[in-house]
Amino acid sequence: RRKRRQIIKQDGNDDMWWLQYMNQVHSEHMMSTDPAWIRECSVDDVSEDSWRVIIVDPAWKGTVNAGEGDNAAIEVWAFARLGSWVTMTLMDGVYSNTLTAAEGIAEIFRLAKRYVVMDVAPEEIGGRSFRESVKNEGDTRGWFVNIIDLKSVRTNKNARIVTFLHACQARRVFVAKECDAALKAAFYEQFAEYQPKMDFDDAIDCAAYTCDPAITTAYAPAVSRVVRPWQVRPAPVEAPRTRHCGR
């Protein structure tokens, strides 16, 4: 470890030690997340009164590009109020780079029926064809679907993810043990290794939409404001009348 101390003395950090000598992708100094921020629970622990939404980060494939490029992420999230906090739980989902758009829609309705979800929030830039396809499929299946228009689709991806990391740091994010193995593995890996301009960040980017304004302000349970005794203004007292009063 003498060499490490020399590098810290010379550079002010141990980045070169981890990158060159230990062959790590990034050093402890460069890490921005802590796996201890995420806690696991069971699906049975999720409140029945929780509001649930399916968030979709599409990267649908065809016959040519199947198995290549970005992954499609479909995630079921549950929001519940616990005391003064709103907790977020990743219950289940799908993570794949072979899904076609039709297969993605089929997975959405499989998850919707399994977890009784009516709200779907797809990331769609420059069109509405996918969300219309989801609504039409819902009409065919007799399953009402409410499409949520995400407001941060054009926001910088790293800004979205950092907002989500703040919620994780506040210990408000949980992952269900029963969650799909591929999705859970990708989520944990991308969370632990997160740094700007990662090659693959689809699972955590999909999760970042849990902090979208359309969800946090309009759909997530709001915390009721409790009025404290010292915040109540006393009723005005009428001044006593004397002979010096004008009436």
List the helices and strands and how they pair.
Layout: H1 2-11, H2 15-21, E1 39-41, E2 51-57, E3 72-82, E4 85-96, H3 101-115, E5 119-122, H4 129-141, E6 146-147, H5 157-169, E7 173-176, H6 181-192, H7 202-208, H8 213-216
Parallel strand pairs: 1-7, 2-5, 4-7, 5-6
Antiparallel strand pairs: 2-3, 3-4
Helix pairs in contact: 5-7
Question: Which descriptors would you attach to this protein?
Answer:
247 residues; alpha/beta; 7-stranded mixed beta sheet
Please state how the strands of the largest beta sheet are arranged side by side.
Answer: 1-7-4-3-2-5-6
Task: Note the total helix count.
Answer: 8
Order of helices and strands: HHEEEEHEHEHEHHH
pLDDT below 50 for ≥5 consecutive residues: which ranges? 63-67
Class computed from helices, strands and strand pairing:
alpha/beta
Whole-number average pLDDT? 82
* Strand residue percentage: 15-25%
Number of DSSP strands? Answer: 7
- The amount of helix comes to 25-40%
Describe the global form. extended
- Chain oligomer state: single chain
Largest sheet: 7 strands, mixed
Mind telling me the C-alpha Rg? 25 Å
First-last Cα distance:
91 Å
